[in-house]
């Protein structure tokens, strides 16, 4: 039993350090990619209040934290590529927006917004995604929110 305990501890530590496989590094930038199998047109995603489409396949994710207190508000860009009965979503240029800070300098009040990219938060000096710290795994927290955001609703609400 004493020999089994360290092995269990090692495997549980490794699982805490693992990052989500949907986040990939491409040319020094972190991109979230996911492939959906769905026969509906991706134009149905235009009904989402959190997505702002610039074209039929690109746009931005409006400032949100997905009602998750562990996340700072974020903005990001997305691209949707379509093939027969499936579509791939890529989310990139992910920026986190911290709470504004007020600075009093020479009797002037300045409001500074703290913005940082996901690369600043997660990339190590070697260009790899850092392991999680203290059980806080940002990629595992973001992944289900992104999956839900780009999943098409099967039935439109018809309550008016």
Report Rg: 19 Å
Structure summary, number of beta strands: 9
N- and C-termini, Cα separation: 63 Å
Oligomer: single chain
Secondary structure: elements and pairs:
Blueprint: H1 4-17, E1 23-26, E2 29-37, E3 51-53, E4 58-64, E5 73-83, E6 86-97, E7 101-105, E8 108-112, E9 115-117, H2 118-122, H3 138-149
Antiparallel strand pairs: 1-2, 2-6, 3-4, 4-5, 5-6, 6-9, 7-8
What does this structure look like?
The protein is α+β, with helices and mostly antiparallel strands and 160 residues long. Helix content is 19%, strand content 37%. It has three helices and nine strands, in the order H-E-E-E-E-E-E-E-E-E-H-H. The strands form two sheets. Strands 1, 2, 3, 4, 5, 6 and 9 form a seven-stranded antiparallel β-sheet that branches. A two-stranded antiparallel ribbon has the order 7-8. Strand 4 (58-64) and strand 5 form a beta hairpin. It is globular and about 60 Å long. The N and C termini lie far apart (63 Å). The relative contact order is 0.20.
């Amino acid at each position: 039993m004493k020999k089994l305990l360290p092995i269990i501890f090692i495997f549980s530590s490794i699982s805490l350090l693992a990052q989500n496989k949907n986040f990939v590094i491409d040319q020094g930038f972190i991109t979230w990619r996911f492939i959906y199998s769905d026969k509906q047109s991706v134009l149905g995603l235009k009904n989402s209040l959190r997505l702002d489409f610039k074209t039929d396949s690109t746009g931005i994710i409006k400032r949100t934290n997905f009602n998750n207190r562990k996340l700072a508000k974020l903005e990001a860009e997305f691209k949707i590529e379509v093939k027969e009965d499936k579509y791939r979503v890529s989310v990139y240029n992910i920026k986190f927006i911290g709470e504004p800070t007020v600075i009093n300098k020479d009797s002037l009040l300045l409001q500074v917004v703290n913005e940082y990219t996901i690369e600043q938060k997660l990339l190590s000096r070697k260009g790899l995604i850092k392991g999680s710290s203290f059980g806080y795994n940002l990629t595992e927290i973001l992944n289900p929110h992104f999956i839900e955001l780009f999943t098409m609703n099967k039935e439109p609400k018809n309550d008016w």
